[in-house]
């Protein structure tokens, strides 16, 4: 009689990878939308404020301070003795009004923001964005439009350091989603505002329609992200981490390129006490080799954008001066979008190289303004596209390598503190652009 074979044991079912993939896709999409919404008001607010002020000026006596809110170059030589087609006030004035509140937030908030849970931070950022749209759309005086710009700046600054800190609770690839979303805000925000107003909507109605943006921000955070249970969303918790052994401990900046786990899981290793102020200062010191090249990149590119672009005018081109300036800005934003979305394809560890290349761009265009040797605007179009590529690449790679090379216990603070680098560069560029603009317009 044939012996009956024992029943074969079925292999243990493999963990369902589709659920993990779906959660990963949700998180990437959520951070993309958070990046888009966080920078959206920042992108459209100044041009919208200018349109609203134009309406005010048609009803009221012109206010000379409104010149500081002009975002688009309006064309027309405002300086009769200048060989350049100059505005009397540099667009750097707008840059400073927009960046200084953000800079103040980024310099101070990383040391105290951990006392405010993430849920409250997101609601505050959404409130500031909504407030900026409402203030500017219903403004009846210059100070109201300026206050709207400040609201947008504060919300974007706090949002940036909040969401960069939040990435430590997720797989590191969400940094690519965040970077791509912030790049998309530059192109999408400008195109949407211009398209709606071009279609016949008034600036006020266009701004009110954009109140959907802070709503999408809240929906993305509270419903789209797969938030880990360890996240201190509504409670005030000191999120700290175990003291790792010497074999696991890595310096903030040791130059190591060893592969490490792609998942940041700070809450799974809680036990150590909170970071002291001295420890935070040590982390900041280690961050300098990331912050300095990032700041230099942004100094060079915003010096170009706010100090030189409006002076690079080619009168024989079929585009007007205002149209040339808009295309410069648009191509710059396209370059930023492409490079901030490139983290999944290429990673650049040598951040100083990006900085030096951007400085070369600034020096080249400064000489081009002074000696007017560039043959056509098409050359400038190519340079500003390349400028955007360098700036976006520096941004996403800076935060990727900070996340990778920082110990678990310091990572959340480091991501927030390093966000000050770009704002410092932008503010310095705004200050430097004033005397340069004045010099060229006096020639």
TrEMBL record:
Cleaved signal peptide residues: none
GO CC annotation, single: lysosomal membrane
Gene3D superfamilies reported in the protein's UniProt record: MFS general substrate transporter like domains (1.20.1250.20)
Domain of life of the native organism: Eukaryota
Entry's localization field: Endomembrane system; Lysosome membrane
Record-annotated membrane-spanning stretches: 31-49, 92-112, 118-138, 145-169, 175-193, 205-224, 286-304, 351-371, 377-401, 413-434
Membrane topology: Multi-pass membrane protein
Any one of the GO BP annotations: regulation of intracellular pH
Keyword annotations of the record: Lysosome, Membrane, Transmembrane, Transmembrane helix, Transport
The family this protein is said to belong to: Belongs to the battenin family.
Annotated protein name in UniProt: Battenin
Organism: Gasterosteus aculeatus aculeatus (three-spined stickleback)
């Amino acid at each position: 009689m044939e012996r009956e074979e024992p029943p074969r044991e079925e292999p243990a079912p493999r963990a369902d990878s589709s659920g993990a993939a779906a959660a990963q896709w949700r998180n990437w999409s959520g951070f993309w939308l958070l990046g888009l919404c966080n920078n959206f008001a920042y992108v459209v607010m100044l041009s919208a404020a200018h349109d609203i002020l134009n309406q005010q000026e048609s009803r009221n006596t012109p206010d000379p301070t409104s010149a500081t809110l002009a975002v688009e170059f309006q064309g027309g030589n405002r300086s009769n003795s200048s060989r350049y087609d100059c505005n009397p006030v540099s667009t750097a004035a707008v840059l400073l009004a927009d960046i200084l509140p953000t800079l103040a937030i980024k310099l101070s908030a990383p040391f105290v923001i951990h006392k405010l849970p993430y849920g409250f931070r997101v609601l505050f950022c959404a409130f500031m964005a909504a407030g900026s749209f409402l203030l500017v759309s219903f403004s009846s005086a210059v100070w109201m439009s300026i206050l709207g710009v400040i609201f947008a700046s504060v919300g974007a600054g706090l949002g940036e350091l909040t969401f960069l800190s939040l990435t430590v609770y997720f797989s590191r690839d969400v940094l690519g989603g965040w970077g791509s979303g912030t790049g998309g805000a530059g192109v999408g925000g400008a195109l949407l505002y211009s398209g709606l107003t071009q279609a016949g909507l008034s600036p006020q109605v266009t701004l009110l329609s954009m109140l959907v943006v802070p709503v999408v921000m809240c929906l993305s955070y509270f419903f789209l992200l797969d938030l880990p249970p360890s996240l201190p969303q509504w409670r005030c918790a000191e999120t700290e981490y175990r003291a790792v052994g010497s074999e696991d401990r890595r310096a903030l900046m040791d130059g190591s390129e060893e592969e490490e786990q792609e998942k940041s899981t700070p809450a799974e290793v809680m036990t150590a006490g909170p970071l002291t102020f001295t420890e935070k200062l040590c982390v900041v010191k280690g961050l300098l080799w990331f912050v300095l090249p990032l700041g230099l990149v942004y100094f060079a590119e915003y010096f170009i954008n706010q100090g030189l672009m409006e002076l690079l005018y080619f009168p024989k081109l079929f585009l007007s001066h205002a149209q040339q300036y808009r295309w410069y800005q648009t191509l710059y934003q396209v370059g930023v979008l492409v490079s901030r979305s490139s983290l999944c394809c290429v990673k650049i560890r040598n951040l100083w190289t990006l900085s030096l290349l951007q400085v070369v761009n600034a020096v080249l265009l400064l000489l081009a303004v002074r000696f007017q040797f560039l043959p056509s605007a098409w050359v400038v179009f190519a340079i500003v596209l390349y400028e955007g590529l360098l700036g976006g690449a520096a941004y996403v790679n800076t935060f990727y390598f900070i996340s990778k090379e920082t110990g678990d216990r310091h990572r959340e603070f480091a991501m927030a503190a390093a966000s000050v680098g770009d704002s410092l560069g932008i503010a310095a560029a705004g200050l430097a652009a004033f005397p340069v603009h004045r010099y060229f317009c006096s020639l």
